[in-house]
Amino acid sequence: MRLADAEEILLKTEVFAYGGWMQMRQVQAFNVLYEQPDATLRFRRLARQGRPAGKLYAFCALAELSPNEGVTLFQQLETMAERTVTIEENAISWKRVSEVAGIATASKLGTQFRRLRDKVDSYFKPTG
Which residue ranges make up each domain of the chain? Predict the structure, then answer.
């Protein structure tokens, strides 16, 4: 996946996927951004400009890349009353951003997304 595509996906996404089924383009895009030398800057920008789901992906990254910024972003997210579409396992639902931020913290979703890098890349690898 190209870097520009990864940024656009996370900037515009309205879906936050976590749990057992994370073969989503968003998780692939998360890893593309995470591997950039300026990943912290890119995720900061996503935290400012992204939709609620994108902000959650930014939080998952910043919690690892810059823990103090992760704490600050978590404090902002936990006050949000907005909801976002979530996919957990095979269940699709609307959840409050504040609730999902708590789940992301407790489950260390940034670490999980990183571990899934190769699996997700393989899933989206073109065939033929």
Answer: 3-122
